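Entry 0007
Protein: AAA family ATPase
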Amino acid sequence: MTKGLLMVWSDVPAVPGPPMVGRLAEREAIGRLLASVRDGFSAVLVLNGDAGVGKSRLLRYAAESARDLTVVRLVGVEAETRLSYGALHRLLRPYLGRLPTLPQRQCDALNAALGLTDAPPSDRHLVGLAALTLLSDAATAAPMLCLVDDVQWLDRESAETLAFVGRRLYADCLGLLFAGREGTGDPDVFGDLPALRLEGLAGHEARALLSAGVTGHLNRTVAERLVAGTGGNPLALLELAVNLGSEQLAGVTPLPEPLPVNRQLEEHFRRAAALLPADTQTLLLLMAMTPTDDQAALWRAAGALGLSIRSAAPAVAAGILNRGTTAEFRHPLIRSAVHSAASAEELRRVQTALAATSAPERRAWHLAEAADGPDDGVAAELEAASELAQARGGYSEQALVLTRAAELTAHPGKRAERYLDAAAAHLTSGNLAAVQALLELATPHLSGPAARVQATRLRASVEMLRARPREVPAMLLDAVADLTTTDPTARWDLLREATQAAIIGGRMITGTTPHEVAKAAADAWQDAALPAGSPDPLMAALARSIAHGYAAGAPALAAALARLRTADELHEQDAFSVMVSIAGDEVWDIEAKREILEKLVAAGRARGALYGLSLALLALAKVEIWNGRFAAAESCFVESDDYMNATGYFRSGDFHKALLYAWTGREAELRAAVATMRAMSDSHGTGVTYRWAGQALSIFEIGRGRYREALDVQLAVFADHPVTLGDINLAGMVEAGLRAGAPAAAALAMERMEERAPLAATPWALGLLARCRALMAAGDDAERLYQESIAQLEKVPVAVDLAWSRLLFGEWLRRRKRRADARVQLRSAFESFESWGAVPFAERAKAELLATGETARKRTADTRFGLTPQERHVALLAASGLTNAEIAGQLFVTTSTVEFHMSRVFRKLGITSRRHIERRLGETDPGD
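Output (structure tokens):
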């Protein structure tokens, strides 16, 4: 690579400008970003501010300061906001030759998104990983700085992809610097990235900039007024310095009113352009509506309009265009001013020329923009074009094109259908606010029950994605009643979704009850021939269990779980992992639960479906907790949080770690998580979070020996039936009831346990049943029952319940004065609990062990190596035999980031080979 500023791609060339004044804090932030890139790391910064405040100037400053880096530029174009992945295509165009070097899934995803092949669309986060890998690979050859201006005019998919890239960067020699106007675009896309808001220059800095731009005398009072009137807006000051007369600057004649700032500044540019010849104005409008890098499209349309390069000369002379071989606006704000100032007639004329010279997928849009009223023919072309966008995974583009098609549709019913289709596309893209807006437009003109049902399902989907199931079951039952078709599939789909919402909402749903919803679903279910991976049999089994009782539901649940275990591939859909987790707990089948969740995690990784992957990892974390693998559970939580942050989806804080906090005795964190879960249950109608909170809190209270408190929580969960998720709490309720002096409550739990555990007949169920019988036993039968409990629980990966049974058995033996026998059980329980970090139960076991006359030797895990959760997760994957590239693909990061983590793992563990990782980690965490 040659030294100096390497322009790989540029929408705005680095032209000389006025000297940089002020902005010390911003320049320091940019300096830190560049230093991080030079040190082999990555950094991201978003500059926000009003028009003309100096964002573009700071981007130019960054480029000037990065002469030893590869500098890549991209500018959003307002006219291109509907073209999904259009801006990303422009950014990545110089590097598309590297596509074959990407992992195949990433290569296919990016090819499909950019329309380079006919491959089916992939999840947009897999596209994001492909873009990240492509840019990171390019930066490996030469550290890179990407400057992205006017992000408010990026199409949604490109913006989301670049924000995703920004969140996943770590050790990639790559810096991203974004700039955009506040109040435009989607603020959520870049909202959680590091940002600086630019204000006007301070008084002395603004006066210095103004003085630098004035060639004659500048009256001090005039300067003060200009600074105050513009709020220190740099572009406004520079425009005033050039355009005010010498007598105005000297204070001899009055200043104009109002001064050009913000909207007035844009009006100033409009007026300047309006003074140019007509053909020049047309050329400027054409330039404002085409990407700067697509000069061929620009001049094809110019030819259709009878324009030539000579038409640009007056604009160059007026300072509106830069001088050079490429026609470029002097400032991005001028592009916006020209576009917004154009009359409807002028816009239609230019759009017609663009339609005549554009590719088919763009032609329909240009024709639509040229239409001056309803046009069913153009609407039909748009609908066809939307299918092309969908084929590339451009769901935002599909939605925008369908919305425009609806606007051009004459018939109200057909118009409403297209609005609904557009809303469905927005739902797929994750733009929930747009879904709501389009539903409001469509609803008054829905022409039949099918359209009304579709609208209801869309509303229900929005509520579920916002974790607000309270009204969804009743809403979907109404849709079922509205169906006039005898199609059983359509009826079942609605009832399946209603059942899931009822399970998640529980007692918090309104307008119906979980029992009513489940009965409707169970009665409608027809066991048709379905793929093994279909979620329908499991949902039908859950409905059957709630509606007709455990005896009817347990065999169906067991069969559905067994069926899913045989599936070659599963897909997370509609939070299916949550249903799998609940079903597995309901029949105490930890092995089926683990196997199915692992398949869902693998499928999520393969498809790049990060939202579903996040949910599956949360469910898998609880499996790890029940097996005493707290460190592995923590890794699942860390990875899930990472993906939630990367995707910008609902952020749950730490409440999903409540069960881990309970077992590890982190009381403050647990109580904060429980408070959050209960508040969410009340505000959103998510009864399931209330039950999860109760489960975690009761385990913690039992560990601390606060049995009355534990029982109070358990009784509230127990009373929730027929809604699921009470059964795995039954053993704890028996113990808490007996120890709290509430035998009636213990008997209630025991009755349900005696009914259900034999029907489930899994080792986990039978082991807990034997434990409960031992607790209730009055004589020596308890010893046999405790031994039976331990023997059953040893068969399945539920190490914490196994240790719990040993603890209770040891306590029973000690009370029988059999101290030697008690020590065996208590020592095993203590060492297990202590090694995992299960503090409340370890302390309880330790106290019992001390009472037998033995001193408990504390086995503190060796943590001197200090691996971070991310480093430990990478190390575990490396120990499993994965290569760095495979780890990168699994964690949705770059190979450079994995290599960096691995280097730190080697240094901290004091090893030089991956073969030693597993042994070394075993030394640092004996509980895992």
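Curator remark: The CA atoms of residues 544 and 553 lie 5 Å apart. Residues 1-15, 860-864, 924-928 have pLDDT under 50 and may be disordered.
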